[in-house]
Amino acid sequence: xxSFAVVIPAYYEEGTIRDVTERxxxxxxxxxxxxxxxxxxxxxxxxxxxxxxxxxxxNMGKAASLWRGMQEALARGVEGVITLDGDGQHxxxxxxxxxxxxxxxxxxxxxxxxxxxxxxxxxxxxRANRFANFWIxxxxxxxxxxxxxxxxxxxASLLKGIxxxxxxxxSFVFESEILIEAGSKGIRTKAVQIPAIYxxxxxxxxxxxxxxxxxxxxxxxxxxxxxxxxxxxxxRVIIAKEK
Length: 243
Description:
Helix 4 (123-140) packs parallel to helix 6 (174-184) and helix 4 (123-140) crosses helix 8 (231-242). The chain has helices at 17-25, 62-75, 95-104, 123-140, 156-159, 174-184, 209-226, 231-242, and strands spanning 4-10, 31-35, 52-55, 80-83, 109-113, 152-155, 189-193.
């Protein structure tokens, strides 16, 4: 078995965060929630739960919240960090699937992949994710199943050896860039299938499909340019994959 912590970034999640957190506690004794300056009762509804609650005084963005939670987890001496969203889009009950794959594949990022469940994903989100997959996989140098899923296991060895921009405008860029950074260090990903959960009762996503995909694409383009367009990566993602 490996020791790990669960990190849940939360921003205006008073309607779902307690349920997600309670279910996470059943899977892991180390649960860290980072309230990213919410103006509602996101922090308040967690009173009485045996969790580490961190709060950003102002909204710093998902990247900064994830990184703060990861650093807290590393300070507790864990071997890995599981991240999942606080809006109910990910099932804490699927954590054991990621952990088991991590045990079988040390020093690997494990991603909970949803794209197999195409009929459950809004078409605009599905197309945006596929678009992002292509670019991120190219820059990373190998095929990636679901580059936009935030339900992941990160090995501590990776998190201890990277430095990435976590400023607010990189909120949804961070999770893409860390895959590329990992690829440059020889650390790859493996995927385990999880259900795609999109319900009418869920609050609107903080992810802005057009703007955030453009920010991700700009980051990836810069990475590719610095790598001389990474033609070996293009070959592995496009040509070798099709054979």
